[in-house]
Amino acid sequence: MIGRIVLSVLLALAPALPAQAASRIKDIATLQSSRDNQLIGYGLVIGLQGSGDGLRNSPFTEQSMRAMLENLGIATEGGRVRATNVAAVIVTANLPPFVQSGARIDVSVSSLGDASSLAGGTLVMTPLKAADGQIYAVAQGPVIVSGFQAQGQAEQLTQGVPTGGRVPNGAIVEREVPGGIGDLRQLVLQLRNPDFSTVVRITDAINDFTQARYGKRVAAEQDARTVNISRPDGVSTARFFAELENIPVQADSPAKVVVDERSGTIVIGQDVKINRVAISHGALTVRITEMPKVVQPAPFSKGETAVEPFTAIEANRPDSKVAILDGPDLQTLVAGLNRLGVKPDGIIAILQGIKSAGALQAELVIQ
Length: 367
What we know:
- The chain is of the alpha+beta class.
- The chain contains seven helices and 24 strands.
- The protein has three domains: 2-13 and 256-366, no CATH class; 22-33 and 180-250, Gyrase A, domain 2 (2-Layer Sandwich); 37-173, no CATH class.
- 22% of the residues lie in helices and 37% in strands.
- The strands form eight sheets. Strands 3-4-5-10-7-6 form a six-stranded antiparallel barrel. It has a four-stranded antiparallel beta sheet with strand order 2-11-13-12.
- The two termini are 23 Å apart.
């Protein structure tokens, strides 16, 4: 029934979908200089209501507490720390491109020890480093946790992930990332989904625009992912790219079928085609029934009553159908699969069989 509903919805939507919709260059490609940088740091979350790390199981938490207190001028030698309102965490963040010193970014906080929840905690000042080992931001602030945990003597309820949270605008950028577009003469566009046809279309669209506006062709394709652009004179890099990124281009993509066997999700691309094939689908059902018979002896024979085994075996294929499937376009393909009336797991098996037969003119991706 689920397979019929999913395919019926696809069939209903297929005629309304346009053949190909034009996308802006900014939606299908990115400027090579404008990339994020990943940051990571180790810190402490304090103020927890008894849900922090067990210091016996997480010795690094106690070491971090002692080091933090010593930096604040508080001696902690000679005694064992028994606080349960502190948790060691890993803090991660993405440093956006062109960010300046003093800007704020969001950070994610994840428990490193055996803390049961970070709800109500506050992240203490945590330096965030990049791959080069330099500190680019410092994070601090209250941790927002969406999950929760409730526990009684005989039952425990957990919803969401209480050991992870976020600190919105919790990090202040301390160091700018070297580089940027500035006055670059050469720009490099990189496609999010590599495709030679899309690269050529982007190159032609940019050249048509610059030929009409600046009197020269400035773009050249390099490979399936890269377009090289020369900035003309008399315009800044930022203004020039702002003019280019809104140019509409029809993005192309290879035919692909994506199958997730765990959830039964099937995504069929618009350009997927199937050669004419005949398909038989139906589950084999074998029924074994034990019906022992009681045999009575003949009158006056002095025999004994006996039980004779009797087994009935029946094999059939209910709902077995043979259909001819021919999918020159997405609508016909969905209609043909829908006529078979199979569930998603059956559709997955059919697609795998069609691929093995060489009739599926698309890439089959199984996740």
